[in-house]
Amino acid sequence: MHPSYELTEAGDRYFDGLAEKFSRSLYQAPRGELRLAMLDYLLPQMLNLNAQPVLDVGGGLGQLSAWLAERGHAVTMAEPSQDMLVHAQAWHDQRVSEGAFNADALHYVAAPLQALPAQAPGPWPLITCHAVLEWLGDPAQALATLASLLAPGGQLSLMVFNRDALRFSNVVKGNLNKALGDQLAGKGRRQRLTPISPMTHAQVLGWADSCGLEMVDVAGIRIFQDYLRQAPASADDQAALMALERQYCRQEPHWRLGRYLLYTFTKPEADA
After folding, report:
1. CA–CA distances in Å: residue 92 to residues 95, 103, 258
2. Model confidence, pTM
C-alpha cells in the first residue's frame, strides 16, 4: 500500500498516487462535469473578478487554476501532492500550447495549506480554496490560516463538502443507522474518497466569524444530481437537470442540500 494513502501525523489526507483515481472518479464522470459547469456558472456571479492575482489553495488537477488563468488572472497554484502537480502542469502546458493563456500566468508552490504563510504569504486580493478543508484534520485552523493570507478587502472563494448532504444521501441509500449515529466521516484509508472532515453550514459560519471573515454569498452545488435514482438518459434530461441545478442553487431550502457548499467571504477593510 502506498504510504501517502493514509493520514499524515497532523491528521490530514493528501493524494500522492491518487491523481488518476481523482481524474477518473470525479472529473471524467457526470458528477465532476456538473460540478465544473456549476462553478463556471456561479463564480462570475459570486466574485468580483478583475484579473487580480489569485492564490489557488489545494489546486489538485488544476482545473480552477486554468479557469482563472484563462480570464486574465496571474495564478499561484499551491498543492502538496507531487502527483497532482505533475498532472496539473502537464495539462496546463497543453492549454498553453492551445493558446488558452500564457505560460507565465501560472506559478506553482508544492506545499500544504499550513505552509503557505511562509511560502506564499501575500496578502492576496483573491484566494480560492475548493474541496480542501474536508481533507484536513483541523479545518477550523485551516480557515484561520486562509484568513491570515487574505488582504483587507480581499475575497475568499471557499467550497466545502456538506455534512448534511452526506447524511441525507446515506438515508436515501438505506444506511439508516450510519446516518442516525452521525458516522459520516471517511477514515482516510486506501483509495476511498469520502472526506475525513465533512462540515455543516453552521460550523463554517462559526469558524469564519471567529477569524474575522464576513459571508457575502453562498450556493449549493449538486443539489439534485446525487439523489437521482437513475442518471439522465438523454441530452434533454441532462439539460433539464442542469436547469434545475442553476435555478435552485441559491434558493432556500434547496442550496442547503448541495453536496458542496460554495461561499464568498470577505476580509473587512481596516478602520481608518
Report:
1. 5, 8, 29
2. 0.90
